[in-house]
Specification:
By secondary structure, the chain is α+β, with helices and mostly antiparallel strands. The chain has helices at residues 2-7, 82-95, 109-123, 141-144, 148-161, and strands at residues 36-42, 48-53, 58-62, 68-69, 71-72, 75-79, 130-132, 166-171, 174-179. The radius of gyration is 21 Å and the shape is elongated.
Length: 185
Amino acid sequence: MALTLFARRPKHVDLLAVEPEPWPEIGETWKPEGVTVVERYYNVGNAVVLVHRSTGYHVVSCLGCHYEATQRKAHYSTMLTLEQAAELANTHAAGCRALPREIPARPDEPAAREQLRTLVRNLRTRDEGLTLYLFHLDTHRLALQRTNDWINGELKLLADDEPEVLKISVNEWGTTYHLQQLPES
């Protein structure tokens, strides 16, 4: 009898095929396009603090007070690992007293397009030769709720429409986006 207890194996569950459980606070699932929610924390006011991944790095976003982080303050050049993002989210949740707000609605195509174009225009500086990478847009993924393919397509359209804002170069490694220098006033 003892051998039969150890011979049993639990049934394999494919976690990717399992539907996510509804969020307790809203009673529904939420899977925004272009954003993979990895962890959720609750702050003191019961608002949700998310850890999400978009381009391989992690972002912390509070759905109460609009706090967002992609880097540790002491290390500006390093993007967040899952462990670092979880620590930041937990620390923020412990001190944040913001009340919960609605989960952001997915904007329609024209609104998302204009939002992305505004973001790119605002990233320009007086420095020459700045490269725009998709991870520069990670803190805005909850607002955009779009995939990398959609963003790449829109960046190409922006470069065609406004070459004074963005230029594209293509090489054997892929497409690179170059922010153009702001004009002198």
